[in-house]
């Protein structure tokens, strides 16, 4: 018998309700998966309870086009307070004259920065994606979107950074409008001073994408781009800087025209609703970072070095041994021949063992989907209170899963047992 309209609607809404419940079930399962394992993806982090409260607030549904005190909509008085506090804190925490805290991601911050700083057809220099540059620095991303003529730096594979002399010569030769630095694979500080000098010499502006290392920079343990020649720094607010997902634009320019260009490039240039709940979350995260950021950044780098050393001692091929493996939150490991896909296989096996990582291209790899390596990050484990002793435990679990060939389900129970002691979020109010 055919269903009448009301029964049809009832059947549909029951089905829709089941679908919505199924989504929430998967949301909870994802939380449990990360919560009982070792989350080691270098671009991720967790938010504190106070940041979560800001993000899960009425602001979620609001708009505030413009800047504090200059809004298009009514109803923004309280949000003006929030964003003003956030901007002031961002200037303080990143030691900058100018901050825009509206971008909804690091990628959007980069798109806005390129809109403000270069014109279509301009030349730009950047790290190639094969050497660890981000997709937004490439033709497939923001650089292509802006119609820029991209030239990538000569790379020193041993030092895992631009070859300083060759890159400086290339910048002098290429004469870009913008020299962009920073990357997604980021073990060591960029030799920025020398390269920024070369860029400024030929009239280029200098942009530093600190998406990954923003918390380490603000914590004073990596490098200080705004004092080493960067005219503008962009970054994500949710990697080593442990806030909600979003982005920042930061500069020391006192040129009001440039400040206006940067603000306009964010709104109306690349955002309309700029996720007010996340702006509030960023403001809270900045306050927490002011209190705890220096020790969090230091502990993160200490843990990365401890993990690298422990993995090497367990028999893994850890990159950049001569330079002490790492000066950031990241560690790179090689699991087989170049382009062999060994990194993909290792990441899959580790996930079965409760360890969440990502495959990554290493020097020499040419195929992004079958690389030989892994990129590991310790910023999230650190935030859960793990220290160098636990980094040894993590390395032992890696060995048991990847070298000893222990059943991954068995390793997963060992991982979960270790993780049980480290569930609370630290370095926050
Ligand atoms: C160097 C770099 N820039 C920008 C981004 C993009 O950040 P988001 O994911 O916040 O858009 C990333 C992401 O990992 C990155 O590694």
Structural features, described:
Helix 6 (164-174) runs parallel beside helix 7 (192-201), helix 10 (276-313) crosses helix 13 and helix 13 runs antiparallel to helix 14. The protein has helices at residues 5-35, 49-55, 77-93, 106-117, 142-145, 164-174, 192-201, 214-218, 256-266, 276-313, 342-352, 379-383, 388-402, 408-419, and strands at residues 38-39, 66-67, 70-71, 98-100, 123-126, 149-152, 155-156, 161-162, 178-181, 205-209, 232-238, 242-251, 317-318, 330-334, 355-356, 358-360, 373-377. The protein has 2 domains: 49-289, 3-Layer(aba) Sandwich (Aspartate Aminotransferase, domain 2); 293-419, Aspartate Aminotransferase, domain 1 (Alpha-Beta Complex), CATH 3.90.1150. The protein has a 7-stranded mixed sheet, with helices on both faces. Helix content is 44%, strand content 15%. The chain contains 14 helices and 17 strands. Strand 7 (155-156) and strand 8 (161-162) form a beta hairpin. The longest helix is centred in the C-terminal third of the chain and has 38 residues, at 276-313. It has 429 residues and is of the alpha/beta class. Bound molecules: pyridoxal-5'-phosphate.
């Amino acid at each position: 018998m055919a269903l009448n309209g009301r029964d049809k609607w009832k059947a549909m809404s029951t089905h829709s309700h089941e679908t919505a419940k199924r989504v929430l079930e998967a949301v909870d399962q994802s939380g449990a998966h990360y919560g009982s394992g070792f989350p080691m993806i270098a671009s991720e982090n967790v938010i504190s309870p106070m940041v979560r409260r800001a993000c899960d607030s009425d602001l979620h549904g609001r708009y505030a086009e413009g800047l504090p005190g200059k809004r298009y909509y009514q109803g923004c008085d309280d949000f003006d307070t929030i964003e003003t506090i956030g901007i002031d804190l961002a200037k303080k925490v990143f030691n900058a004259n100018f901050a825009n805290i509206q971008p909804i991601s690091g990628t959007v911050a980069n798109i806005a920065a390129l809109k403000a700083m270069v014109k279509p057809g301009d030349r730009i220099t950047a790290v190639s994606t094969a050497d660890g540059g981000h997709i937004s620095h490439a033709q497939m991303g923001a650089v292509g979107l802006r119609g820029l003529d991209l030239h990538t730096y000569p790379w020193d594979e041993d030092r895992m950074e631009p070859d300083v002399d060759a890159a400086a010569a290339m910048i002098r030769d290429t004469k870009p409008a913008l020299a962009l630095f920073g990357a997604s694979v980021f073990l060591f500080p960029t030799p920025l001073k020398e390269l920024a000098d070369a860029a400024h010499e030929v009239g280029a502006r200098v942009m530093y994408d600190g998406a990954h290392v923003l918390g380490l920079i603000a914590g004073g343990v990596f490098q200080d781009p705004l004092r080493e020649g960067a005219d503008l720094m962009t970054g994500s607010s949710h990697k080593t800087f442990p806030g909600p997902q979003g982005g920042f634009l930061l500069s020391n320019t006192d040129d009001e025209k440039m400040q206006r260009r940067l603000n306009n490039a964010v709104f109306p240039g690349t955002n309309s609703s700029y996720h007010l709940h996340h702006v509030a979350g960023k403001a809270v995260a900045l306050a927490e970072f002011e209190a705890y950021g220096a020790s969090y950044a230091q502990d993160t780098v200490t843990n990365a070095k401890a993990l690298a050393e422990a993995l090497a001692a367990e028999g893994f091929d850890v990159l950049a041994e001569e330079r002490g493996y790492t000066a950031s939150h990241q560690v790179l490991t090689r699991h087989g021949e170049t382009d062999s896909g060994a990194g993909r296989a290792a990441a899959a096996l580790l996930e079965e063992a409760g360890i969440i990582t990502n495959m990554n291209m290493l020097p020499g790899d040419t195929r992004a989907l079958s690389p030989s390596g892994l990129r590991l990050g310790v910023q999230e484990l650190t935030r859960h209170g793990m220290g160098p002793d636990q980094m040894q435990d993590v390395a032992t679990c890696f060995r048991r899963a990847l070298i000893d060939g222990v059943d991954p389900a068995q390793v997963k129970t060992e991982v979960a047992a270790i993780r049980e002691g480290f569930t609370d979020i630290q370095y926050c109010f």
